[in-house]
Design goal:
The complex is a heterodimer of chains A (329) and B (225). By secondary structure, chain A is an alpha+beta fold. Chain A folds into two domains: 182 residues, no CATH class; 98 residues, 2-Layer Sandwich (Alpha-Beta Plaits). Chain A is built from ten helices and four strands, in the order H-H-E-H-E-H-H-E-H-E-H-H-H-H. In chain A, helix 1 crosses helix 9 and helix 9 packs antiparallel against helix 10. In chain B, 48% of the residues are buried. The C terminus of chain B is likely disordered. The chains are: A alpha+beta (329), B alpha/beta (225). The interface between A and B is large, with 41 and 52 residues.
Chain lengths: 329, 225
């Protein structure tokens, strides 16, 4: 076998290399990043079977807290809309003269915190009680109407925050005409308390699942590093910096995170669509038109941003730990 | 260009691979390093790209002491050194072209057009331009070694080091590979080759340094001819 002889001049030694400008260096740098970005995606596609499993694990791990977060935020917003319809019930003293009642109504109407007033007389209350309680016949045996007059106070729009309503309640309960002032939505405040507790639990669960995502991605990258041990050694031998060697693995992690995030988004939507109908039916029983709908834009963006971010982080941790151990020998 | 001054290397298990080795290679020198298996040839070569560091003594390249090269600066040092191995160390999941292009990608200083031009020039030089799209697994031992040489020279290094580059080749191919090294040496590249094939290196008429049990037999100073 003969070597091919050419008329071409042999390569010039390093000392004669052309100097590359900063602009060209930057252009080459970004071109190289783009090259690694696309080749790492192609590499992911080449062993799709194994990588799909990893993506599914990441997707499910992200979907769990995302679903709970979406569900809780929907319930939270529903609670907030109920909060807006909060009313204070003023149970008036039994012996309150009509003149005092009229004075009370006039004064309350002048308060800026008060949006509207509705008076329910003892007779109206009794009638309503008879109709709704099923104890109408029993009421006939009573000598007198035991129910007091009630004034329903709806807070003005600007004063519907929980603290403002609470303050209004305090102020109303101090009135001499009032026997008892009661906020109708105390149960809602308890619900808010439960939601807050659940949100904290979701946050902690989310933190644990994010850790799981980091470990899954880190382990996948660790295996990729092991399988490309020889390549890494060669690249380091010919002058590849740590950053150069690390780069494809970081992009790899980012792709895993991005596809995991996309899968999570899809899974959450599938869950919401499946739960929407029964939730809607349940809400109808309570006279509400509440429905779950689909994942909102904020959560979508969060999933699509956090997924790649967790991927990058997991890959960074794995490469930092394992790449340093590989040196040419 | 390359200067070893009283270099010794003792591994952590106590084995002393090199003992008080001193020599100097000037720019555009070509020298052979010979000796029996385990004499310390590979250890000596590994010290030039800082794969190994000496336990004692000093090494300078272009008058720069390697002891002062920090870990993060080692890649830049290696980019100026072309390294060729007995087993060529090619990446079988890439084409011949991609293997040769690797040092240019690593340096990040070249536009893709320039990369293509340089890779083809290097492959042409070693007579493998027509195999650029092949996978290395389809190449013969001699062809693989020539691809390894193309990869080592594509970035126009100042120094070429080769560890038993003809160890797996027949005499004719070995001679052709050596002639390639000679051509690169003729354009100013400093070449240091480890080989135990005394007949082959004797025929090249270049400087020869002999190692025995980690000691340089030729003594200190310039390698003998």
């Amino acid at each position: 076998m003969r070597l091919k002889r050419t008329k071409q001049k042999p390569p010039r030694p390093a000392a004669q290399r052309s100097q590359v400008g900063v602009k060209q260096r930057l252009r080459n740098y970004f071109a190289l990043h783009f090259h690694v970005l696309t080749t790492s995606l192609a590499q992911l596609g080449r062993s799709l079977g194994g990588n799909l499993m990893t993506i599914m694990v990441i997707g499910i791990a992200l979907a769990l807290p995302a679903t709970l977060h979406v569900f809780l935020s929907k319930v939270d917003s529903l609670g907030a809309s109920w909060q807006e319809s909060a009313k204070v019930s003023l149970f008036l003293k039994a012996s309150l003269p009509a003149q005092a009642l009229s004075g009370l109504m006039t004064e309350l109407n002048s308060w800026p915190e008060v949006g509207s007033l509705e008076y329910i007389s003892p007779e109206q209350a009794l009638e309503e009680f008879k109709q709704t309680s099923g104890l109408g016949d029993a009421m006939e045996f009573l000598d007198q109407n035991p129910l007091p007059g009630v004034v329903l106070v709806s807070p003005a729009l600007a004063h519907q925050a929980p603290a403002a309503v609470e303050s209004l309640l305090q102020r109303l309960s101090q009135r001499s005409e009032v026997d008892l002032a009661q906020l109708d939505l105390e149960w809602l405040q308890r619900l808010f308390g439960l939601i807050k507790l659940a949100e904290r639990a979701v946050l902690l669960l989310g933190g644990l699942l994010v850790l799981a995502v980091l470990f899954v991605i880190g382990n996948t990258i660790r295996l990729a590093i092991q399988s490309r041990h020889d390549e890494i050694e060669v690249v380091k031998l010919i002058g590849g910096s740590d950053a150069f060697v690390r780069r494809p693995f970081l992009y790899n992690g980012m792709w895993f995170g991005l596809f995991g995030g996309l899968l999570a988004w899809l899974l959450v939507n599938v869950l919401l669509v499946n739960l929407d109908e029964p939730v809607r039916q349940l809400a109808e029983l309570y006279g509400s038109d509440f429905s779950l709908g689909l994942v909102d834009i904020k959560t979508t963006l969060l999933l699509l941003l956090l997924g790649p971010l967790f991927g990058l982080l997991g890959a960074w941790l794995a490469t930092g730990r394992h790449l340093r151990a590989i040196e040419p020998s | 260009m390359i200067q070893f001054s009283n270099v010794s290397k003792r591994y952590s298990n106590g084995y002393e691979a090199l003992k008080d080795v001193s020599f100097q290679l000037d720019k555009a020198d070509m020298a052979f390093l010979t000796g029996h298996s385990g004499a310390g040839k590979s250890t000596l070569l590994k010290m030039i790209p800082l794969i190994e560091r000496p336990s004692a003594g000093s090494i300078t390249i272009d008058e720069k002491p390697l002891a002062q090269v920090k870990r993060r600066k080692i890649p830049a040092l290696r980019r100026d050194i072309g390294i060729i191995f007995q087993d060529s160390k090619l990446l079988n999941d890439r084409t011949v072209f991609d293997n040769v292009a690797l040092p240019l990608l690593v340096s990040g200083e070249h536009h893709p057009r320039e990369v293509g031009r340089r890779v083809r020039a290097a492959l042409d030089k070693v007579g493998l331009l027509q195999r650029e799209n092949d996978s290395p697994i389809y190449l013969s031992g001699g062809e693989r070694q020539r691809v390894g040489i193309a990869r080592a020279v594509v970035n126009r290094p100042k120094v070429l080091i080769a560890d038993e580059p003809t160890g797996n080749l027949d005499p004719t191919l070995s001679r052709e590979i050596m002639l390639l090294f000679e051509q690169f040496n003729q354009v100013g590249v400093t070449v240091l080759i480890a080989s135990h094939d005394l007949e082959l290196i004797g025929a090249m008429g270049k400087c020869i340094m002999a190692l025995r049990n980690g000691r340089l037999l030729a003594g200190e100073g310039r390698p003998h001819r």
